[in-house]
Amino acid sequence: MSNTVRKPWTVAQFLDWEERQELRYEFDGFQPVAMTGGTDAHEAIGGTLRALLQAHLRGKPCRVRGPTLKIEVEGRIRYPDAFVYCTPVPPGETVIREPVVVFEILSPGTSRIDRIEKLREYQATPSIRRYVILEQDSIAATVFVRHDAGWNAVPLTADDVLTMPEIGVELSLSDIYADTGVGAAEDQGDTAAAG
After folding, report:
1. Does an H or E element contain 136, and which?
2. 76 φ, ψ to 5°?
3. CA within 20 to 30 Å of 108's CA: 61, 118, 141, 194, which one?
């Protein structure tokens, strides 16, 4: 019986290995973790969010990217569903190291990682000023905002506006979910409950 202890990879080893892979992988600080596919709602939320951010940031120094461009945070490599960075990078860059606002859309399989592990990593990354976790099954978000003394969590629902002064953008939460059908499903449930 072999009790071989595997040595953790470095970020450089992971990036060199990942460059030769067909699929996308995140790096959890120890080893590669395969990325799985999403749902139609997940893609609709992410696509709409990126399009809204792109429209608001046009002509400004900040850029929105995701989900195929990676960020380095706390010695790990992540592929957020969307993120905004405001520092110049070469066009061929594959890793962004100073994201300012990061977005993750929850999935049943990633909820724990997004709410706990990534939250800790993003909090430990000084450039990240705001971390937005978007629910997939309802129009709702949890926004973590960096303050001098730490982080504050702010819950948002359908009638709220996501304010991001770090990048000079405000988005209605209901606009982010406009193409998902999530709000319509909630409204039908409310109508059925009332009837």
Report:
1. none
2. -130, 160
3. 194
